[in-house]
Amino acid sequence: RSHRPILPHRPRRRFHGTWYKRTVADLVPIIDLTPWFSGGEDGRRAVAARVDEALRTSGFLLITGHGVPDEVRARTRATAREFFRLPATVKARYTAQVGGRGWLPPGAEANGYAEGTETPPDLKESFSLAADQPTGNAAIDERWFRPNVWPAEVPELRQVVGDYIDRMHRLSDALMALCAVALGLPADHFEPFLSHPTYGVNLNWYPPMDPAQAPEPGQYRIGPHTDFGTVTVLDREPGRGGLQVCSADGTWSDAPYDPAALTVNIGDLLARWTGDRWRSTRHRVLPPQPEAPGEDLLSLIFFYETNHDAVIESLPAPIGHTQFPPVIAHEYLKDKLDAITVT
Fold first, then answer.
1. Separation of alpha carbons 267 and 280, rounded Å
2. What three-state secondary structure class fits 262?
């Protein structure tokens, strides 16, 4: 199922006789990818056109027909919860730094730092994984392709999460082909940049409100930020302290939710690549809310990137309208990851 086509030339809509301003959430469509995977050329072009429109306006979309079974998503989330239920002393055996492999404890990360804003640390725990197929370059492999860490206390995590990562990788490759067509390029345009990509995977647990300590002013489960790479694929749970996205005029709105859908947004590298045709949109995850103090949520996040040595150069007009200086992908990403590291 899908929303009606977005009408960016109509910034206001009428509801029961009253005109109101459309929020960014109004511009986040649900797009069925079934015609992309199994339809004809007309269906593929129609899906690509809707993706282009969504990424020009909100920078976010929800996708159905993605091919990831509900039971796979549920099993991955349930297995991740087994890890987060372990005592902190056990989880501490797997402590890692931001960008590493293992457990990021509370206080390890502040995403608002990526914007130059010194916010309190994010109210979350993460178990982080990443690409682990070495290149043969020792320095690059140490930073970007180290072996993943798998906790012995949850032995099924490796198989379950490993399968989920493989599915997200294949889906992200398909999304990059879809993005190419949405830009009017051949479907294989990005493939040379994705032959040995880096990527990051976060299993994010947002715990309930601590009765002994309310969130500090300006503290979030994840502080306001934009993502850093190409496409982000998010499997999330709805909640009062959930995902919000920011409109171009600075208005924050709750992101729409559909249990069958995955949430997709683009990061800074892809926005630069498109010459700002597409938006790398600010977003945040609200802190636990007083009306739902016992709420805990768990998100599965796949951050797709490119080959570590890919040179990202802005596509010229008529695709893009801003020419950014070229950047080397892994240098750009390292700066961003270092910026959000608290401990």
1. 5
2. strand
User: What is the rounded end-to-end Cα distance, in angstroms, of the chain?
Assistant: 44
Q: From the DSSP assignment, how many helices (H) and strands (E) are in the chain?
A: 8, 16
Contacts of 25 (CB under 8 A, 6+ apart): 58, 245, 253, 254, 255, 256
Place of tokens 């503290």: 219
Sign of CA dihedral 151, 152, 158, 160: negative
How high is the pLDDT of residue 100?
Answer: 92
pTM of the model: 0.91
The C-alpha atoms of residue 89 and residue 136 are separated, in whole angstroms, by: 35
253 torsion bin: left (phi>0), alpha (psi -120 to 50), beta (else): beta
Tell which residue, 216, 221, 219, has the closest CA to residue 237.
221
Please report how the helices 157-182 and 70-84 are oriented relative to each other, as an axis angle in degrees rounded to 10. 130
Instruction: Return the structure tokens found at 5.
Output: 């086509």
Residues, the chain: 343
Q: 100: Cβ–Cβ under 8 A, 6 or more apart, which residues?
A: 128, 146
DSSP structure class, residue 17: T
Q: Residue 276's pLDDT is what?
A: 96
Alpha-carbon separation of residue 234 from 118, 137, 171, 201 (angstroms): 26, 31, 12, 10
